[in-house]
Design a protein that fits this description.
mainly alpha, 7 helices, about 80% helix
């Protein structure tokens, strides 16, 4: 087997292993959300300097995963804010947007340098449709925020995490 083939196989193996670890992590977070449902919006697990240290560590880990996977990290941020910091699930969603913004800016800057965005030119109409849909969805979600109860949001987030986990696990 040539060195190039071995390197390609190793890269594929590492990518698959990374996806499997992420898939397991997503399921574990879903389980903790369901089991810790009552605790998720009461009080932070840590306070003071310990909370700051854990916040930096969690933020770094979430930022790395978000960067590697090309996502904003909300699927990890929202549970972290709820479980570790005792933030209400609705507020956690809003905070996640604010926290994700720097991650998205760094990702945008990085990907724009290596021609990853060239695919966007090829699929302009799809990108435009998705952007419009995202704006419409965000506006509708904003209106529903006052109506939907946290007792529905946490289990719904857990289901989304499990579905995402399956998709990540099965990704080729």
């Amino acid at each position: 087997m040539s060195r190039l083939t071995c390197a390609g196989s190793a890269g594929s193996l590492h990518g698959r292993m990374l996806r499997q670890v992420l898939a397991v992590l997503l399921v574990m977070i879903a389980i903790v959300l369901i089991l810790g449902h009552d605790r998720a919006t009461h009080s932070p697990m840590l306070t003071g300097a310990a909370q700051l240290v854990v916040g930096v560590i969690a933020g770094s880990g979430i930022g790395m995963v978000a960067s590697i996977m090309g996502v904003a990290g909300g699927e990890l941020l929202i549970p972290t804010l709820g479980l570790l910091f005792g933030v209400d699930i609705k507020l956690a969603g809003s905070l996640s947007l604010a926290i994700s913004l720097p991650t998205m800016i760094v990702g945008f800057a990085s990907y724009s340098q290596d021609r990853s965005f060239s695919i966007l030119r090829t699929h302009k109409s799809f990108v435009f449709a998705m952007a419009v849909g995202s704006i419409v969805g965000a506006a509708i979600g904003d209106q529903l925020l006052g109506v939907v109860q946290p007792s529905i949001l946490l289990p719904a987030l857990a289901v989304i995490l499990v579905v995402s986990s399956v998709k990540v696990w099965l990704h080729q």
